[in-house]
Specification:
about 35% strand, alpha+beta
Length: about 250
């Protein structure tokens, strides 16, 4: 992963920059669905405040989402764009804060087991069962050949995942990545080394996220060529199951 870590970290700095400004521009809200009231109406908390909302899509109780709402006078706020938050975020919330640069420094050290060793050391020192479970999930992710790095920035929790693969047809190494970011929602993509330059393809679910990131392109290194598109669905490279979450709690 010699070329990938620096480039992913550059993308990460791009994505995590301007958190407060980014949230204001993307208008993404955290929606916790509490109860189905019937008729497309739901009781939810929106950024921590309880409210009733309406949705044309059927939604599952006790689920968490990134959402954008529209509101008309005399009507309930209506969900018009929504994306499920990974279950892994709920588990990682138990971790002590650690800046992204600290994890990236471990990855850049070049030792393939440095991050795994760090997680194992933290697992042994876990102060609570929730913290123990969270580090267990990070180690399980590595077992599935996916590196998951928790991210804490501007008081918000997210995570970055990376997985290296080899394309036999192109005879090139690729790095797939996925990031769950509070103010941008899910961002996934692929990095590929191509004759001295790095080609990056980003996929996002919210058009406002794409607009915000396009305004930050000047912050990228010149050898990193980026293309971006919106998609209907994204998914983590590795995700814990609801069964694992139930056991950990």
């Amino acid at each position: 992963m010699s070329f990938s870590v620096g480039e992913v970290s550059a993308l990460l700095r791009l994505a995590a920059s301007g958190g407060i400004e980014g949230k204001a521009l993307t208008k993404l809200l955290t929606l916790d669905l509490l109860k189905d009231l019937g008729g497309g109406r739901y009781l939810a908390t929106i950024d921590g405040k309880e409210s009733k909302v309406q949705s044309e899509l059927p939604l599952k109780e006790q689920s968490r989402f990134w959402a954008q709402l529209t509101a008309r006078q005399g009507e309930l706020p209506k969900i018009h764009t929504i994306s499920s938050k990974p279950l892994l975020l709920q588990s990682l919330a138990a971790l002590p804060p650690m800046e992204p640069e600290q994890f990236l420094a471990l990855v850049k050290s070049g030792h393939p087991g440095s991050v795994k060793k760090h997680f194992m050391e933290q697992l042994a020192m876990a102060a609570t069962k929730e913290e123990f479970s969270a580090f267990s999930q990070l180690l399980l992710s590595i077992h599935h050949n996916v590196l998951t790095l928790p991210l804490f920035y501007e008081r918000y929790l997210g995570f970055l995942q990376m997985k290296k693969r080899y394309n036999k047809k192109e005879q090139k190494h690729h790095v797939d990545f996925y990031a769950a970011l509070h103010h941008l929602g899910p961002v996934e993509g692929t990095l590929a080394l191509n004759e001295g330059r790095v080609d990056a393809v980003l996929q996002v679910q919210f058009e406002s996220t794409k607009t915000f990131l396009e305004k930050q392109l000047n912050n990228l290194p010149p050898y990193l060529h980026l293309s971006m598109q919106t998609v209907d669905k994204t998914a983590p490279l590795w995700e814990m199951s609801e069964t694992l979450l139930d056991v950990s709690i």
